[in-house]
Design brief:
Largest sheet: 8 strands, mixed
Low-confidence stretches: none
Shape: globular
Strand order of the largest sheet: 7-6-5-8-11-13-12-14
Oligomer: single chain
Mean pLDDT: 92
Number of strands: 14
Order of helices and strands: EEEEHHEHEHEHEEEHEHHEEHHE
Strand content: 25-35%
Structural class: alpha/beta
Number of helices: 10
Distance between the termini: 43 Å
CATH superfamily: Vaccinia Virus protein VP39
Number of domains: 1
């Protein structure tokens, strides 16, 4: 593994490392993102963040889906909270017909690295340097088809979730979601994931009644997705086999998916 760039800014140490053709972003020793321009799927946690969006079509065509434009009835608007190196932004752009992918990132160095090393320069990407929680609380614009919450900070070398998954946080996210849109959240550790409000709060359950839980080997990340549309492992796996681009890469996917019981 080679270091292609590193710097310490305001007491925080950043590194961009290569592993073969894969680029990895480390902040204070914590792996934030990885990107391979040849092999979009990572075989790890970042795949879990895009997979629930395959449920956006629950009525499957009988013929293979040859392009991302055919997969979606309309172009998607996607909001990603926490950009890092932008792995999930690339996946959404590669496998879906996206009109716009907005990435909120507090750390200006992460945005600089994402543009310089991780190729987030296409016009479909809009990277905003901002406090994502304040932005979500104050935003009053167009709604999104998919919202991905991947907000973490480091504490003693460990990732810590920025926004606790409380009913209030879910209300804020849901306010910016189209009807039948999907909220996707990344957690470290099962106890953290199982604290998500839809699993415990009846008022949140009513507007996000369906949920799935995704994991991948060798990582303690747990990704939950919630929607009022059907979500299931069966839909995800069927869509993978119908999507020519993903099907050709599916040997790189390693994940488990189960329904959440409310």
């Amino acid at each position: 593994m080679a270091i292609v760039w590193q710097d310490t800014r305001e007491g925080t140490h950043y590194q961009v490392r290569t592993a073969g053709k894969t680029l990895r972003l480390y902040t204070d020793g914590v792996l934030h993102s990885q990107y391979n321009p040849v092999k979009t799927l990572t075989g790890s946690v970042w795949d879990l963040l895009f997979l629930p969006s395959l449920c956006l079509t629950s009525e499957h065509t009988r013929h293979p889906i040859s392009t991302s434009a055919q997969f979606n009835i309309k172009p998607l608007k996607v909001l990603v909270l926490g950009v890092g190196g932008g792995a999930v932004l690339h996946m959404m752009n590669t496998f879906f017909n996206c009109e716009k992918i907005v990435g909120l990132e507090l750390n200006p160095t992460h945005i600089e690295i994402a543009k310089r090393y991780f190729s987030l320069n296409e016009t479909v990407f809009e990277l905003i340097e901002t406090d994502a929680i304040e932005w979500i609380e104050n935003y009053n614009g167009e709604k999104f088809d998919v919202i991905i919450d991947d907000l973490f900070y480091e504490e003693s070398g460990e990732p810590v979730k920025v926004a606790p998954p409380t009913p209030t946080w879910f209300y804020h996210l849901y306010r910016h979601l189209i009807p039948s849109g999907i909220v996707i959240m990344n957690f470290v550790g099962r106890p953290s994931a199982m604290s998500a409000a839809p699993l415990h709060d009846n008022s949140v359950k009513k507007f996000l009644p369906n949920g799935i839980h995704l994991t991948t080997p060798h990582y303690d990340n747990h990704v939950l997705a919630f929607s009022n549309r059907p979500l299931s492992s069966q839909i995800i796996r069927k869509t993978i086999n119908q999507h020519k681009k993903i099907k050709s890469l599916k040997q790189n996917l390693r994940f488990s998916c189960r329904a959440l019981k409310y």
